[in-house]
Amino acid sequence: MKEISKNFEAYAFFGIMVLGLLYIPLVVVVASKAHAASPALPRCDEARTIDQVRGALEAQSGKVILGLHSAVETHVTDGTDYRRCVAAVVTDGDEATVSYAIGWYDRENAVPFWAGDGLPGSQ
Q1: Could you report the per-residue pLDDT of 93-118, keeping only the tens digit for each?
Q2: Statement to judge: residues 58 and 13 lie in one domain
Q3: Which domain range does residue 64 map to?
Q4: What ranges make up the beta strands (E) of 1-123?
Q5: Are 55 and 81 part of one and the same domain?
Q6: What is the pLDDT of residues 43-89, one digit of tens each?
Q7: What residue intervals traverse the membrane (predicted)?
């Protein structure tokens, strides 16, 4: 009976080793493919871009922004690491054009930044 027990343990150990050697490379390949695609930079007219720009303009100028519309992309770098945009801003009685940029603060973690010139006449 001891002879069967020793063989069973050897076969079980061998089976676990084979499964481990097959499973580990599979997990590594699948995990590396999951992070292979780089995130897309937010578009000029995306909701979160409009929200960020509106919030920054309100904080910078002290005015209430009634609307931010007609956002258009004016320039994109070749690697899509940086976008230049123009949009129309409506405040209480005024309408102005503002320009802003979108780029990567941390591309690996998909954290963009937004920067702009602000409302004309409020600097």
Answers
A1: 789 999 999 999 998 899 999 998 88
A2: no
A3: 47-116
A4: 67-76, 82-90, 95-106, 111-116
A5: yes
A6: 999 999 999 999 999 999 888 999 999 999 998 777 678 899 999 99
A7: 12-31
